[in-house]
Amino acid sequence: MTLPVASRASLATAIVVFAAALAAPQAVAADRITGREFATRSEVYSNQAMAATSHPLATQVALEVMRKGGTAVDAAIAANAAIGLMEPTGNGIGGDLFAIVWDPKTGKLHGYNGSGRSPLGLTREWFDEQKMALIPSHGALPVTVPGAVDGWFALHGRFGKLPMAELLQPTIDYARNGHPVHETIAYYWDRSVPRLSQFPGFTEQFTIEGRAPRTGERWTNENLARTLERIATNGRAGFYEGELPKIVEAYFKENGGFLAAADFAAHKGEWVEPVSVNYRGVDVWELPPNGQGIAALQMLQILEGYDFSKIEFGSVEHLHLLTEAKKLAFADRARYYADPSFHPAPVAGLISDEYADTQRARINPNRAQAVVAPGTPPSLDEGDTIYLTTADSSGMMVSLIQSNYRGMGSGMTPPGLGFIFQNRGEQFSLKAGHPNEYAPGKRPFHTIIPAFITKDGQPWVSFGLMGGAMQPQGHVQIVMNLVDFGMNLQEAGDAPRLHHDGSDEPVGAVTPMSDGGVVQLETGFDYDTIRGLMRLGHHVEFADGPYGGYQAIAKNPHGGWVGASESRKDGQAAGY
Predict the structure, then answer these.
(1) Which range marks the domain in which residue 78 is found?
(2) 257-275: per-residue pLDDT in tens?
(3) Residue 523 among the catalytic residues
(4) I need a surface site. Which of 3, 39, 318, 500 has the fewest CB within 10 A?
């Protein structure tokens, strides 16, 4: 099968091509994008261990840990620490973490929800008194307790082997001695500086004389090195107890925030059971809410009712059905997904075959839906980001995702600590009575989701894809590329993507979709497809940015591992 190209053409050039395709198809008929070979590269193979992360140096850190006898979990922790230093535009110890681990000893998957809660001293009524309809995107108010470090220790306590101090030492060394900043990271860092420089501590700790580091320039972070040394010496308590939370509390009190040492002391992540659906013979696994993983499962349940052996990749029918299934799943996402400690979602009902049949019947194959209400699932008993995955010689596999939420986070950067706090609290709703409404000590709706695929009860693929609401849409497209369209692990991530924007959201003012939203397409789709989607009533735009950050590891049926890292980011898959 010949696939379309997914190039990194400039936005201006791509818009010209896109406009020309719509306005004058005959003029570009000789240079149809789908007529070219798909721009991809070979998969990576290894015998014993594999790591795929969004930063080449972090990949090497992970491999070195496994060479020393560390587990895939040890490697994932070490890589995550490294990326927090090297890619602060997407993550860090001020953010949250979710993970799925395949344990070869028990032959099962284990899920960890490492999301933090809202400050105990802040209520929705306070926002009402301030006449605020939305939680701001930056500053002190959207900050929630960071859950990543707790997640490291929980994962390490169950599946780790090497001492935590040994896992953090490579990042401490890079933080102190410096590392060259990579191209994509430098770009996003530069975009963040104007917005975040207004917040105390950011300019001093995350700029070079008031500017972002440039591509290839050496970056050091002595403050982060000392914070990681505190964690290495004192364990989990070095972050959630003692001096660090006191520094944080004083900083937020001085700057109009509510996060306190008591919030750190009260934090605890939790082990959760991953949930799955069977899609054409493979089991796709996600974590239950407060994350959005089951949206991907809902979409797959709907799409399984169509025969994609007769539907071509990138065709009007493919993209129309994908978009309409997404609208249905996201309407439910806006209605039901929240912290299950406050409002348990009817997970089993939402991903059931019975409900999928009902939802599928709502799709008009000849017309895009402008308004989509949430469904009523049957009552059944049951619940900007980095992604990395690792696999070791024992067969253990880790699917881990970690984030500060919006880019570099809230901008709040306490003195001397070397990290920025996440702004995940923006994801709460201020609508009274909504399942995701703001409350003290509550976990917000979360966008970051790791994924896993098993086949015949055995591990097959550990994968993830970054990017807010793109994530469940991206997960579905990866699964379809592998299962329906026969792509290999690398091709599945390099293929051009669709992103639908405008669905109902479980956050903010909870404004329902009224116009069908917008289908945003990366370069690489046939102009006839674009025109066909428009004829069905879709509003189509060129993608305003690359949608993704895919990494994946698959079990090689001949032994060992297969790795993939897509070209939209600076990542690398490598093994030994």
Answers:
(1) 43-292+337-345+383-497+547-568
(2) 999 999 999 999 999 999 9
(3) no
(4) 39
